[in-house]
Give the backbone structure.
Amino acid sequence: MKKLIRAKIALIILVIASTLACKNHHPSDGISAAAAGQPTASSQTSADVSVCDDYFRLASKCIETKMPESERATEKQNVEMTRKALESPAFQTMAGDFCKEKIRNAIRQDSYGCYPGEAAKRGIQTACNLLTRAELEQILQNSLQDGIQDGFVCKYQYPLKTWHEPFRIEVYFKDGHEQMDASRGALKLFKKGPNSVGQFVNGETLKDVGDDAFFTVAGIEPMLAARQGDVAVDLLGATPDQMVEVARKILPRIQPEPAAKPEGID
């Protein structure tokens, strides 16, 4: 998942950089000029410069201190390509919003432990802060270790059940409809054996759990897929009743991704 996300980002930046080169834009006309107090043809503000500087600071620190050595050169190159692309007047009107989104996504997708405390400080939702550990312990009737974030997934280990798989929350902050459709398609493709599994019917739609929800089997354990609006969750590692309760509590709290995004940047 991380490699796919990084590959997509690298491809987007390559397209942006190529477009800029064809149009003969000059990086010195953009963010760097604005930061130096020179006039520009764009409407970029000092706030835009500040938020982009903040993004580059966070990204660079993560690369230098947390990422494996084998990945650093590529990630540094991606950051520099992003910086040069945003220095062009063609992209300066959207630079601030783009950098805010990059910060939010970097924190939400943090798989290296780069940004401890940043999510709470900035009010950014992640898979690990939608529910408190105390709330989960009450629902699961078990003690838990602190959640460990891995991209859009948060894992809570049962310290008194070392043999047990962690309780797992995966959050989709957008495209919930598509995710549920894909899950149902996979269920039809791979479903084998009896339709009834333990306490639930494999693939049967549940009532009163968001706008859409169903159970399936992940390995040998039940997994709950649930959606409300265009956000969704996958839950694994507890009883069906417990996962239903978690879904009912967590779904209304998820703030979906903004619908509108800067044109030309996904």
User: Anything to note?
Assistant: The chain is about 45% helix and 15% strand. Strands lie at 148-150, 153-156, 167-172, 196-197, 200-201, 212-218, 221-228, 231-236.
